[in-house]
Amino acid sequence: MNGALSPRAMVSGLGFFAAMAAFLVMLDLGFHRTVLLIPVGCAWAVALIGLRPMVEKEHHGALYFAFGIMALMIFFIHETYEMKGKVRTFPLIIGYSGAVLSALDIASVTETAVGRFVTRVLGAMLDPKEIKQRRVTRELIVFAVMSLGVLSIWLFGFLIASPIFVFLWVLIGGGKSLKMSLYVGIATLVFIVGLFEMVLKYELFRGVVTIWIMETIFE
After folding, report:
1. For 32, 48, 49, 127, which has the most beta carbons within 10 A of its beta carbon?
2. Global pTM value
């Protein structure tokens, strides 16, 4: 790979900026959020097509997975905007943070000046051989677990999903004892409730399933 932009990459770049321009125009005109997914989806697709020639063949798996996570974050952000009031603030932080991290991960696998800079900055504490090899299997496991955590928060809310997620992470991922994992999970719940609900008086998102159950019971 000589680093030169292919015609497909240049056309895709123009398509990406055109799609984003269409998004901004449609946003200014007040189009519905679901309709806005059309230019965003087009930008996502042309970005993938355009960046693929800039990535070594052995890194294509990492590229596809990073784009998959980006799509998940876009969908998560879209669904979060359906919430009302302050409840959606914290989920939006997660969604936008995930989108930014996905963009950095996408950039890091490209053979470009930006990609090399991102890898050098964010990967400074990693083994250079590991950075070069980009072991997709481990990335898949980590990102799949984190995606499952985000999905569980969206479905069941922070108060239910967070302590369970931490409990399983410590038990399975950390290899700690059941008692220790249980203590950490309970401590997580106490910390979240104490800080956000009691000290900051911030109502955390309860989750779409939890909200539906509560509304069904108390109707």
Report:
1. 48
2. 0.59
